[in-house]
Design brief:
Length: 186
């Protein structure tokens, strides 16, 4: 039974979001050919909850929104908040900002198209933007090699406080007379 408990623990830990009893039960059946009733499953999960109540663990098993998930215990929230603040302070480089602007205005767009506009490789910038979840993979192009298409993400919209691409500033709103090159004759 200990092996079943460890598998349940691993399933809950590996799920990106909370996971409900029905999904845990189905995964146990499909992966391990183990048949457990909902009541047995609740008892096994209760044992995992008891295990994580111990002070030596920084995580706790919580039941939130009809699903189980591991969360950091409240006593560590201040340290986690500092980590998030630290990560948010890391600014994007100029090249990442340029890449993001190109993606925002030309989406969906391939890496090759971005590189043709910028004139330099943008592998690192795209990777950083994906890590920060400001862009997402929007599919594959219908061209030779089926390159990935990139577009802005919902987090991009949230971060910049816009509802959609139509809310991005237009070029006419950005360009001013001060940006003219050379002398102007009146």
């Amino acid at each position: 039974m200990k092996d079943v408990i460890r598998n349940i623990e691993a399933i809950i830990f590996a799920s990106a979001e909370g996971i409900d009893l029905a999904d845990i039960k189905q995964i146990l059946q499909e992966a391990l050919a183990i048949e457990v009733s909902r009541e047995e499953l609740r008892e096994l999960i209760k044992k995992i909850e008891d295990k994580y109540r111990d002070e030596e663990h920084v995580l706790e098993l919580r039941y939130i929104n009809n699903a189980y998930q591991f969360l950091t215990k409240a006593v560590y929230h201040e340290a986690i908040q500092q980590l998030q603040n630290h990560n948010n302070k890391r600014k994007l480089s100029q090249s990442a900002l340029e890449t993001l602007a190109i993606i925002a205005y030309r989406q969906p767009i391939t890496k090759l198209e971005i590189e043709q506009i910028r004139g330099v490789s943008c592998d690192y910038s795209i990777q950083r933007l994906l890590e920060k979840k400001l862009i997402k993979i929007a599919g594959k192009a219908d061209t030779i090699g089926k390159p990935l298409l990139y577009a802005t993400s919902q987090q991009f919209m949230d971060h910049f406080g816009i509802n959609g691409v139509r809310d991005l500033p237009q070029l006419k709103d950005i360009v001013t007379e001060d940006n003219a090159i050379g002398e102007t004759n009146e």
